[in-house]
Write a structure and sequence with these properties.
The protein is an alpha+beta fold. The chain contains three helices and nine strands.
Length: 147
């Protein structure tokens, strides 16, 4: 089934792309959430007309992502955790905890967009990648200290 994407969908395409997907994926996920519309002849003709609007929306989303990237890279999170001998943490710092700390700083980031190579289990300085947009990623600085 062919659909026209109305939003950026990770691993699928960008706004305005015509992509072929499984019928169930389109029927149960893309169409109900408003992420895509069916690529009929009528919609394909109207796509040419709405291409300008989609291009404007795409540029606006990209610009917002770049602004968010600047905010994230200007931020350094300091997280205090209980630790034992050898500077090992009781538990670990995960992307869920990082998302909560970002939320307390006024940045609403989904935890699935925060990529850690592995959970942080030691005291020290670390970095995490935040995938804001398919074309924009930010580097988050994290300092884990003893509570």
């Amino acid at each position: 089934m062919k659909v026209i994407l109305q939003e950026n969908v990770e691993h699928l395409g960008h706004i305005g792309d015509i992509v072929k997907v499984a019928p169930g994926y389109a029927r149960n996920f893309l169409l109900p959430k408003g992420l895509a519309i069916e690529a009929t002849e009528k919609n394909a003709k109207s796509l040419a007309h709405t291409k300008k609007h989609l291009e404007y929306k795409k540029n606006r989303v990209l610009e917002a992502a770049k602004q968010l990237q600047a905010k994230i890279e200007g931020l350094a999170l300091a997280i205090a955790h209980q630790s034992g001998a050898d500077e090992k943490l009781f538990g670990a710092v995960t992307n869920m905890e990082l998302a909560e700390h970002l939320k307390s700083h006024g940045l609403e980031i989904d935890r699935k967009r925060i990529v850690l190579a592995e959970p942080i289990k030691h005291l020290g300085d670390f970095t995490a990648i935040v995938k804001i947009h398919p074309e924009v990623s930010a580097t988050l600085k994290i300092t884990v200290t003893k509570a």
